[in-house]
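does this look right to u?? 3-methyl-2-oxobutanoic acid version
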Amino acid sequence: MKNTILTIQQQKIKKDKISMITAYDYCAAKLADEAGANAIMVGDSLGMVMLGYDDTISVTMEDMIHHAKAVARGTKNALLIVDMPFMSYQTSVRDALVNAGRLMKEGRAQAVKLEGGKEIAPQIKAITEAGIPVMAHLGLTPQHINALGGFKTQGKNEAAARKLIDDAAAVEEAGAFAVVLECIPDTLAEIITDRLSIPTIGIGAGKNCDGQVLVCCDMLATFGDFTPKFAKQYAQIGSLMKRAFKDYIGEVKSGAFPADEHSFRMDGEIAKKLREARND
Ligand code: KIV
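got this back:
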C-alpha cells in the first residue's frame, strides 16, 4: 500500500505507530521500502554519515537532490520526505519556496522537512499552500548546533519545555502534516503528542510519540564515529563489512580470489593461436 501524508495522519488516529528510516542511496531505500517502512527520509544527516562532515551545516541543495534522486528510485510504497538543508529556507519565504520546489521537481520528494518552530511558520505556511507537504522538526535541531552549543537534550527546564509546546502548536497551525521531536524528555514528547492532532515522530523522545525515526547508519552500525544514546543498533553491519573487506584483501593477496567460478573462458584453440602469435 502506498503511504501518503493522509495514511500517516490516519495512523495517529488509529494508534498504529509510524515507522520512518533514513536512507541516502538506492539500495538502502529499496531495502527499507521492501521491509515496510511507512516513510523514508533523506535526512541532511547524510552530511555526517555519508559525507564525513562533523555536522550538517555544510550540506547543500545539490547534495540533497543528488541523494534524493537515488532514494526516490528505490522507494515505491514509503512516503519520501527530504530535508531542506541549512540556509535553504531560513533566508526568506521565497528561498524556502524555490528550494522546496527543487526538492520535489528534481529530487522527487513527496514532502520536505524543515527545522524550527514559530520563526519558520511563514515558510511552512507558504510551502504547504504551494501544495508541498511539510514535516516540521523540533527539539535538538542539528542545523542549530552552533547556537545550541552541541548535540544536547532540549526542553529540560520549564521555560524550554513551554517554548517547545508553543512551537509545536505553531508548526501545526502553519500547516505541517507531522513533526519530528528529537532528543527531548519522553514526558514532554508525550504532552506534545497529546496536544497535537498531527503525528509526532520521535528520535530520542521516548515511546509515546506517534512514530519513530532512526538514522539507518546508526541502526545498522555502519557509522562508527559516535553512537547517540537513543540509537538502537539492530545489526552490526559495519563489522560484517570490515570482515568481508579483510577477507577479500587476504584472498587477493593469497590468489584465492578470483577462483575459476568468477572467471570467463575462451575457446582453447583460439587461446593457443593467440599465444603462438605472440611468439611470431
Ligand atoms: O537528518 C536526519 O536524518 C533527520 C532525522 C533524524 C529526522 O533529521
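The CA atoms of residues 56 and 191 lie 29 Å apart. idk if thats expected tbh
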